[in-house]
Amino acid sequence: MLKILETAMSYRAPVRDLAFALEAVAGIDQVAATGAFADYDADVMGAVLEAAGQFSEQVLAPLNRPGDLAGAKYADGAVTAAPGFVDAYKQFAEGGWTSLTASVEAGGQALPKALELAAYETVHAANMAFGLCPMLSLASIEALEAVGTDHQKTTYLTKLVSGEWTGAMVLTEPHAGSDLGALTTTATPNGDGTYALNGQKIFITWGDHDATDNIIHLVLARLPDAPAGPKGISLFLTPKFAVNADGSLGERNAFHPVGVEHKLGIHASPTCVMAYEGARAELVGRPNEGLAHMFVMMNAARLAVGVEGVGIAERAYQHALAYALDRRQGRSVWTGEKNAPIFDHPDVRRTLGVMKAKIAAARAICLSTGVAADLAKHAATEAERKAWKGREDLFTPIAKAWSTDIGCEVASLGVQVHGGMGFIEETGAAQYYRDSRIAPIYEGTNGIQAMDLVGRKLSMDGGESAHALIADMKATLIEIDRLYVGKPVERLATAIEAVEDATLWLLDAKADATRAADVLAGADAYLKLMGDVVGGWMLAKGALAAKARLDAGNGDPVWLQGKLDLYELYAANVLGHVSSRLAAVGQGGDLLQGLSVEALAG
Amino acid sequence: MLKILETAMSYRAPVRDLAFALEAVAGIDQVAATGAFADYDADVMGAVLEAAGQFSEQVLAPLNRPGDLAGAKYADGAVTAAPGFVDAYKQFAEGGWTSLTASVEAGGQALPKALELAAYETVHAANMAFGLCPMLSLASIEALEAVGTDHQKTTYLTKLVSGEWTGAMVLTEPHAGSDLGALTTTATPNGDGTYALNGQKIFITWGDHDATDNIIHLVLARLPDAPAGPKGISLFLTPKFAVNADGSLGERNAFHPVGVEHKLGIHASPTCVMAYEGARAELVGRPNEGLAHMFVMMNAARLAVGVEGVGIAERAYQHALAYALDRRQGRSVWTGEKNAPIFDHPDVRRTLGVMKAKIAAARAICLSTGVAADLAKHAATEAERKAWKGREDLFTPIAKAWSTDIGCEVASLGVQVHGGMGFIEETGAAQYYRDSRIAPIYEGTNGIQAMDLVGRKLSMDGGESAHALIADMKATLIEIDRLYVGKPVERLATAIEAVEDATLWLLDAKADATRAADVLAGADAYLKLMGDVVGGWMLAKGALAAKARLDAGNGDPVWLQGKLDLYELYAANVLGHVSSRLAAVGQGGDLLQGLSVEALAG
Prior knowledge:
The structure is a homodimer of 602-residue chains.
Chain A: H1 6-9, H2 15-26, H3 28-33, H4 42-60, H5 64-70, E1 73-75, E2 78-80, H6 85-94, H7 113-126, H8 128-147, H9 150-162, E3 166-170, E4 186-189, E5 195-205, E6 215-221, E7 234-239, E8 241-243, E9 249-252, E10 255-260, E11 271-284, H10 290-326, H11 346-378, H12 382-417, H13 429-436, H14 446-457, H15 464-480, H16 487-510, H17 516-521, H18 523-551, H19 557-573, H20 578-585, H21 590-594, H22 597-601
Parallel strand pairs in A: 3-6
Antiparallel strand pairs in A: 1-2, 4-5, 5-11, 6-7, 7-11, 8-9, 10-11
C-alpha cells in the first residue's frame, strides 16, 4: 500500500569491509604465504570480491523479493524454481562461482576457502534462498574430494564443480533430526556393487528443482548388517538421472520429491520431502562411517551457514541505514534540525552502530575460521597444521551459532528501525526477519553447536586450542592498551578473563563424569560468551590495523576511524555481557533437573 | 506436509499463574481494600479469570491459525473480518468482555483495571489479531469517560461499553508517526458545531470491519487556526454511520478504508489506510489539547500492548513446552533414557525455564502497573494516589517495551525449541514469531518508550518515583536474604544497586542541558535495566509469597516450589545482564555523534 524506498531495496556488496576483514583481521596473507595457492594474491582477492559483489548486486538481489512472493513450487512429483532463478543459476555456474575452492584436478580454481566465504557472503545477502543451492553443492564437493573414488570424482565431482549439476545433503528423517543415529532409511545391495535406497527423508534443501539436468544426492542410510545407532550409518551417492559411461544421462532414478514445506522464510529455496523407492546408489567412503564422512561436509556447511547469518544481517543493516537516512521525524538533539533524518537521533544511531559492529565481528569470526581451515591443510609444519585445525574446530560452532544469532538479532533490529513500515511486507525488512530465522536451526541447531563446543571441541586436545586462543587474545590486549585509555581496555581485559574463568570451570566440570549436566547447562552461555569476546577481539584487531593504516596515511581516514569507533561502541554495548554469560555458564544442572513439568506447566 | 501436534496447537489459559500474579505479586488486595470496587472480591477475580480463560481457549484460540491464513480482506471500499471473527466478536460482546472496567453509568461493571488486564492476557494469547479490536475500544472508552460530553457519553460511550460498536484510534499519517506534531489532517467547522475532517491516515487497526453496525473513530486533526506542531492538534470523534436522536443509525459518513496492509503478522487484524473526505465529526475535549486527551487512551493502550507481549509469549511457551515433552531425540544425561523427550536435555529445559521466568516477570510488571493505575484513582489519600500515579507512569513504558521485547524473544525461542519444525508454518510456532513482532513497534516504538522513561517519567517528580521504587526493592531484598543463600541474594543486591547508580547518573546528566544526547544514548539500556531488575524483584516477591504458602500448607507444593526455582533461574540467567546495561547507560553521546554515515556505510 505504501510507497517503498527503491534505494533501500537494493543491495551494495560491502567489498571494502570484506577485504579489510580478510586482510587486516583474519590474516589471509598467512594463507598466501603457504605457497599452496599458486593463483592467489591480493589482486585476485580484490577481483573475486568485486566480481562476486557485482553479480550478487545485479543478478541475485533483484530476484530476492519476487522469489519470496512466488516461492519454489511443487506439482506432479517435481519442483519448479521461483521465476528467474534457473537463469540466474546458469549465469552463476558459468561465472565459475561453484568452482572457487575445488581442486584443479576436479576443474576447480583452487582458491582459499576464506576468499570463497567472503564472496558467498554477498550471495547470501543478496538472495539467501538462492545461495543455499550452491552452498550445498560446495559441501558435496568437499565430501567427494575427501572420500570419493576416482570414478565418483570423474563422473560426479567434476559436474558439481562446473555447476552443471547440483548436490544435496540428505540426512534428516521425521524421527531422526538432531539424533541422526535414529535414522532408518535402508541400503540393500543390488549384487552388482550398487545399492537400493528405501526410505523417506525430510528437510532436503534444493532436493529437487529444474535449474540443472541432474541432481546428486548424498544420502545417509543403513546397510543390512549395520550396527544400531550412529555407528551403523553409511553414506551413499544417488543421482536423479543415471550417468552413462560416456557421461550422458540415462534413466530417471527411483527417488522423487513428494512435496515442499510451507515455511516462515526462504520461500524460493525448496525444502523437499523426498521418497527413495529402490533408488540406485553407490557407497561413498567406508561402510558404517557415513556420519564421519558426512561431518566433513557438515562442518563446511556449518561455517557456510554462519556466513549466511552475516550476509542476511548485512542486508538488513543496509536497508535500515538507508531508511534511517531518508525517514524524517522529530528534532535532532545534535543538529537542532526539525524534521531531521532519524539517523540523527542518538538511539537510532546507536542501534545502527551496534548492528554494524556485530556484523563486523561475526564476519571476522567466520572468515578467520576459513583462514584457519586453509592453514589446517596448508601450513608449513605438522605442528602448525594441527594448531590451525584446532582453531578451525573450536571456531566452527561459534561461527555457526553466534553469527546466525546475530543474523536474527540484526534483522529484528532492522525491522524496528523502520517503525511501522518494518511490519509491512512490501518494505522488505520483514523478509530478512523471516529468512534469517532458519539459520540458527539447520545444520545443527545452535543448541547442538553449544553442546559440540563444550562437549567435544573444548577438550579435544586437553583444552590446548582454547588456551592458545586466550593467549592470542591477551597479546592483542597488550596492543590495545596502547590505543585506547580506560574502559575500552578494561572491558576487553575483563572479557578475556571471563573466557579464561569459564573455560577452566568447564574443563574442571568435564573431568568429573557425574557433572555432565553442569557442563550442558552452561553450554549455551559459554558459546555466547566466546562469541561476544572473540568478536570483540576481532574488532580490536581491526582497530589496531586501522590505526596502523591511518598513521601510514594508507586509506580513507573517515572509514578507518570508523573501525576504531566500532570497537569502542562494541566494548560499551556488548562486552559488558560477559558477567551475565559467566553467571549462566556456572549455573549447574541441579536447579534445572528439579524444575518439574508440573511447575513449568503453570 | 508434516503431522502437527494437535495438542500443542491448543491454548490453556494460565488461570492459576494469573491469580498468583495478581494476588501474591501485584497486590490486588490493596485495590479491593480501597472500597471503590463494590462488586470485586477474590471470588469475582477467580470467576472472571476462569470465564475469560474458557472463552479464550474455546472460542478465540481455534480461530487463530485460520485467521492467519485467511486474513482480513479489503474489497470495494470495505473490510471483511476473517472467517469466524464476526461471530466470535458478537459472543465476546454478549459475554460482557468489553465492559469490565467501564463505569456503571456507562453500562460497565466497574471492576479493577488490573483484573481486566489479566483477563485480556488470555484473549491476546489465544488470538492476538482478534484482541486488538476490543483493546482499541477500551482505549476509546477510557478517552470518552475522561473528556467526553454527556451527549457523547450517552450516544457513543454506552455502545462502546456494550460492545455493540467498536472504537478505533486514528493518529498516524505517512509523515507523522513517532512525531505526531507533523500531522496535517484538517478539521473545518461546518457552522453547526460539527467539523469536516479531511486527510489520509495510515496504520488504523480495525479501522473498518463487518463485525458491528457502527465504528467510532477518534481522530487527531488540526483546526483552521491551530498553532503549528503538537500544540495545534485536536481530538475528534467521527462515527462510520451518523447516529440519529433516537439512537438509530443514519447516513454513512464520508470516510472509508482505501486498503489494508500486507503485514508480517496479525493478518486477521485489518490495518487500514483510511481516507476522510469531509467526514462529519465532533470535537472531543478542548481544542488544541488533542494530544493530551489522546495520551489518556495512549497510556492505557501502551499497557495493553505490554500485556499482548505477555500473552503471545505465554502462547509460544506453551506450544514449545508441549513439543519438548512430546519430541524424542537422543539420550538424557539425567534419566539415562535413550530417545528421551527433549525436555530431559539440560539446554532445552533451561530454555523453557528462562522463558517461563521471563513471562512471569513481564506479567507481574504489567499487572502491577494495572494495580498502580487502579490505586492512582482510588487510594485513600491524595498522597497515596500521587505516589501510585508516579508508579503507574514510571512503569508504563517499562511494561510496554520490556514485555513486548520478551514477547518477541520468547516467540523466537519457541521456534528454536521446535528445531526444523519451528520453521514450518503448519506447526504454528512461526505465527507467534511473526505476530509478536508488531508489539515493540506500535503505540510508540520501544525506542520512544525509552525516551519517555528517561526524558519524562524519570524526572517528572524530581526522581521521587524512581527512588520510591528502589526503596521498595531494597525492602524485598532484606526478606530475600532470609530465603536464599549466596548468589540469588547477591545478584538481586547488585541489580538494585545498578538501578540506583544508573538512575543517579541519568538524573545528573539530565540536570545539564548540554548532555541531552548522553541521556538519550543511554535510554534503551536504562529501560532494559529497569525491566530486568524490576522483573527480578517481581519474581522475588513471588518466591516470598510462595514460601509463605508452602509453610502454611496452602496450595500445590510442587507448583509453589516452582516459583522459588524460577526466581533462582532468573537470577542466574538474567540478573547478570545488569553490568552490561549499566555500561551502556553511561556510554554517552559523543562516540555516537562522531559515527559518520561514511564510516557506517562501509
